[in-house]
Amino acid sequence: MARLDSLMQCHWTALVILLLLMMGTMVEVTSAVQNFTLGFLSPSMSSEIPPSLVTEWESAFRVAVEVMNTKSEKYNLWPHSVPSGCNWEIARTGAHVMMLPNDTIPPLLGVVGPACTPAAMSAAIVLSGEGYPLVSFAATGEPLSNRDTFPNFFRTVYGDSFQAEAVAACIGKLNMSSVTIIYTQGQYALNLANNIETTVNGTANLRMEMLSPGDNLSIDVSQLDGILSSLQPLDFVILVVNPQEAQDIWAVASQEKRLEFPWWYFGTDGVTAFNPADQIPTDPTLVNELVGEIGLSPYGGGYAQNDICEEYYSYWQVAKYPGLPTGPQNNSRSYTPYLIDTVRVYFEVCDALLAHNLSITAENVMSALNGSGPLETQPNFQGCTGLVAIDPTTGSRSAKDQIPIYDLVSLVPQAWEVKGRIENGNFVTLQPLTRPNSEFAPNSTYTGPNPHKRNVGAIVGSLFAVIVILSIVAIAVYFYKRRKQREYRSSRPFVRVPK
Ligand SMILES: *[C@@H]1O[C@H](CO)[C@@H](O)[C@H](O)[C@H]1NC(C)=O
Ligand SMILES: *[C@@H]1O[C@H](CO)[C@@H](O)[C@H](O)[C@H]1NC(C)=O
Ligand SMILES: *[C@@H]1O[C@H](CO)[C@@H](O)[C@H](O)[C@H]1NC(C)=O
Ligand SMILES: *[C@@H]1O[C@H](CO)[C@@H](O)[C@H](O)[C@H]1NC(C)=O
Ligand SMILES: *[C@@H]1O[C@H](CO)[C@@H](O)[C@H](O)[C@H]1NC(C)=O
Ligand SMILES: *[C@@H]1O[C@H](CO)[C@@H](O)[C@H](O)[C@H]1NC(C)=O
Ligand SMILES: *[C@@H]1O[C@H](CO)[C@@H](O)[C@H](O)[C@H]1NC(C)=O
Ligand SMILES: *[C@@H]1O[C@H](CO)[C@@H](O)[C@H](O)[C@H]1NC(C)=O
Ligand SMILES: *[C@@H]1O[C@H](CO)[C@@H](O)[C@H](O)[C@H]1NC(C)=O
């Protein structure tokens, strides 16, 4: 019996040891999953970005992190969102909060965001102090390419010199012979307006108007009144402002009756981040008046036709996170696909570091991004927005690996609809554009502000040209005729037709 007892005891001991061993390996398996925090400096608390877009971006960030975590067995990145607003001050505070030691969350690896250029500048400087990389999905201001000032800043978007080329392409393609550029004083608008002026380089007649902020509105109303009332009928207005400023400018333009035919506005990416769907409940009249205004938007990746992006959107749908982009296929969503690709940059770099037997640290991620790490650790993958690679000399999206694509968009009541595509500063497609207020405008498919195509306009136009060529006598005849035909001329397309 005693022998049996000891035999059983022996078995028990063996079993316990075996169990402990098994548990040990299990513990080892779970603890082998390393955890890091991936920060998101979200534009929440900003008055410049529409709340619906903030919600969309917050969700897109979580969706991207969660989808990517399902693919990685060795590590997890935990999403941690901190408000950064759209300006220098809030982002600076946000970046400090992001770096606070916090026992309840894993160590910080790097940060995604901010969306706005000034916010990205101050956050980059703060995070640089502790050696954290910052990768933005929407801050396009050219000064951020300065490697001496912002060595830890990277972005999956192109710098604004490429957007300026796309704007210049539109100026040429739409025959904008006389252009008034209205811009504001922030880092984004100031620099982009400057980039456009440099790129156009005298090939079109540009009038630059810098708007000051107002007391209780984002813009100075009386200054804007002055600019708008000095516009000539054939002037094209290019707005280089943020979404809130665009909305305020349009509200004033509406009061001044400068949204009516023949006035036509063209907005840069900040303007097309204005979401008409947000505005419809509070101001349906303004949105109606804006139908037909045009602008530029970074290529949205057409997620419906893109398997890589589709995965994230179906997860988003199933997880029921708010702000899922909907609407027609051609809708270009402001920077959401770039945000998804930005999150993926971190995962791709982590995978590559592990494949190189390098540990996942903020420093190694930084080296991979700034090009000082092994070549294979630099991000280079097919994402929602094409081939994603960073140019280490600028920290920006590499235009060599993926040519810059912008969409020419036109406002329909619920959204901005894609009407054309500009690749590398050249139009590859352009559908006919319908001008705003076309019930007052000629019913032709109008592709430019040039009224010479119109029947009456064409007659007057060629008459004018002939007269100029002929002589002063002919001009006198012309003015004589004009006096006699004032009634007839009030129907010229570039004279505002009263309602
Ligand atoms: C990482 O997080 C998971 C899930 O919370 C946990 O099971 C695991 O032990 C953590 N790993 C480490 C090394 O703490
Ligand atoms: C730590 O992080 C958690 C989760 O984000 C947050 O709720 C908490 O306020 C943070 N604590 C400190 C001291 O920052
Ligand atoms: C701008 O135009 C001037 C004169 O037309 C020309 O000399 C110069 O090379 C142009 N600059 C650029 C950057 O194209
Ligand atoms: C803005 O402030 C001025 C006085 O400073 C006031 O007259 C005006 O009504 C205000 N406008 C709005 C939209 O609040
Ligand atoms: C818009 O979508 C339609 C069909 O969904 C497609 O035929 C058309 O080419 C698209 N336009 C652009 C500019 O992508
Ligand atoms: C990583 O380490 C493993 C095993 O130690 C080795 O087989 C592999 O070649 C190493 N990889 C690189 C890229 O150094
Ligand atoms: C890249 O980042 C690493 C890690 O922070 C740093 O040591 C190195 O000097 C940086 N190189 C360049 C070219 O910025
Ligand atoms: C243009 O067409 C619409 C409907 O097709 C019509 O209501 C409008 O009066 C037309 N405008 C002009 C100037 O002919
Ligand atoms: C622009 O002008 C050119 C030459 O004057 C003309 O051929 C072209 O059709 C015009 N384009 C548009 C969109 O009006």
TrEMBL record:
Keywords: Glycoprotein, Membrane, Receptor, Signal, Transmembrane, Transmembrane helix. Residues 1-32 form the signal peptide. Coiled coil: none annotated. PANTHER family: LEUCINE-SPECIFIC-BINDING PROTEIN (PTHR30483), PERIPLASMIC BINDING PROTEIN OF ABC TRANSPORTER FOR NATURAL AMINO ACIDS (PTHR30483:SF6). It comes from the Eukaryota. The chain crosses the membrane at residues 456-480. It is found in: Membrane. This is Receptor ligand binding region domain-containing protein. The keyword Isomerase does not apply. It comes from Sphagnum troendelagicum. Residues 57-392 form the Receptor ligand binding region domain.
